[in-house]
Design goal:
Elements (H helix, E strand, L loop, with lengths): L1 E7 L3 E8 L10 E4 L2 H18 L4 E6 L6 H9 L3 E5 L1 H11 L7 H14 L9 H37 L13 H9 L3 H5 L3 H7 L8 H9 L7 H35 L11 H11 L8 H8 L7 E2 L2 E2 L11 H17 L1 H12 L4 H22 L7
Parallel strand pairs: 1-4, 4-5
Antiparallel strand pairs: 1-2, 2-3, 6-7
Length: 389
């Protein structure tokens, strides 16, 4: 076996290689630029060392370093190499296990990664194309989550501006951000403009199920206590434009997320309460489910495992979830948990059982989330669809 250790940085990477007998490719680790020529040199050196050692089995390890490891990772995977992404904490512990006062440099780091690979051969889990696709889904879903949060903030700002400009307007519409309300306020963003508007023009803007009349809106504007400040009207129109742009952008993300979910694991959509949005978050945050040997490890990864605290004779009884995992994963699981117990018979029975035990609603949702993770783990692991028990 050939072990390749790559220390990743922004502009350059440092690598070295060791064979099963402990022979190094180079006394001093080699630096390459973070570009195509550097990547090709690495590939050529690996091929050369394999020929010298008469061994074609290669295990490559590189540290997870922000986003800087991703380009070389994908390059090596496409060449057919088995590559493992390693937490830098683990390789650092490997160095310290051999020497307490261990110097830090790229040359030693590359060798330390090789040493880690040799010492942990049984734990070697290569990064797969499935992992790559789930990383794409993870990035898309997180960005969509952020866009949705920004949309919520924009709506709050719009609501506050309408309260200052035309507070009486809010009583006419249940939806202030789309349709008739938006059309009127973007064309007439002040009470002065609305009060002078032609009735027929306002009537033409009213559509759908709106029961309000143009006369009522104009009369309300004439007697409104709202402010006619120009800067408020400008901000209102600008916020509406930003909101429309964000919602259009979110729709584009939805289309891409739907595409990746259908490619990776469409079976997860068979779970009641799981749509493309929550499926994208769940699949993206979990990644390749084969990384987890059992459902309990996935529960721990999600941060829903209970923190146990004991010291001497003291044993804590008021226990809480560790929340050390992905907040995006827990958010998606929480959203599904709120729905699934209402629509699925097995989860509904589980909810009623916990309710009968006197548990609080949110405590029960925590139990449901853990039960849900076990279901998701089984579906992804066995490539099956959800069947109520």
């Amino acid at each position: 076996m050939i072990y390749v250790g790559i220390d990743v940085a922004m502009n350059k990477h440092t690598y070295n290689m060791i064979d099963s007998k402990g022979n190094k490719f180079s006394k001093i680790s080699i630096d390459i630029d973070n570009n195509e020529f550097g990547y090709k040199k690495l590939h050529n050196d690996i091929t050369k060392f394999c020929g010298v050692c008469n061994d074609s089995n290669v295990s490559i390890g590189l540290e997870s370093t922000g986003i800087y490891h991703e380009n070389i990772l994908v390059y090596l995977i496409k060449l057919g190499y088995d590559v493992m992404v390693i937490n830098p904490i683990l390789t650092n512990m490997t160095k310290k296990s051999k020497k307490v006062h261990c110097p830090k440099n790229d040359n030693l780091d590359a060798i330390a990664i090789c040493t880690y690979l040799i010492s942990n051969q049984e734990d070697f889990k290569p990064y797969t194309l499935l992992s790559y696709h789930t990383e794409c889904l993870k990035s898309l879903s997180r960005k969509r989550f952020i866009i949705t949060e920004e949309i919520r903030k924009r709506k709050q700002v719009i609501n506050n501006l309408i309260q200052l400009i035309f507070p009486e307007f809010k009583s006419f519409f249940t939806n202030l951000y789309h349709g008739t309300a938006k059309n009127i306020l973007t064309k007439y963003p002040s009470v002065k403009q609305i009060s002078k508007a032609h009735i027929r023009t306002i009537e033409n803007m009213i559509h759908g199920r709106c029961s309000v009349s143009a006369t009522d809106i104009i009369n309300a504007a004439k007697h409104s206590v709202g402010r006619n400040d120009e800067y408020l009207s400008f901000q209102l129109v600008d916020e509406f434009n930003q909101l429309s742009q964000m919602e259009d952008n979110r729709e584009k993300y939805d289309n891409l997320i739907e595409k990746y979910v259908d490619e990776i694991a469409p079976n997860i959509l068979s779970i009641p309460g799981v749509d493309y949005v929550t499926a994208g978050l769940i699949l993206g945050e979990i990644g390749d489910v084969s990384r987890f040997s059992c459902a309990d490890k996935l529960i721990s990864y999600s941060g829903l495992d209970i923190e146990v605290y004991e010291s001497g004779k003291y044993v804590a009884t008021n226990l809480h979830p560790s929340k050390k995992g992905s907040v995006y994963l827990r958010y998606a699981l929480f959203q599904v948990a709120r729905i699934i117990w209402r629509w699925d018979i097995s989860f509904n029975n589980y909810y009623l059982k916990k309710r009968a035990e006197g548990k609080h609603y949110y405590v029960i949702l925590g139990h449901i989330q853990k039960k849900l993770i076990r279901v998701i783990y089984s579906i992804l692991k066995n490539d099956t669809i959800y069947t109520p028990q």
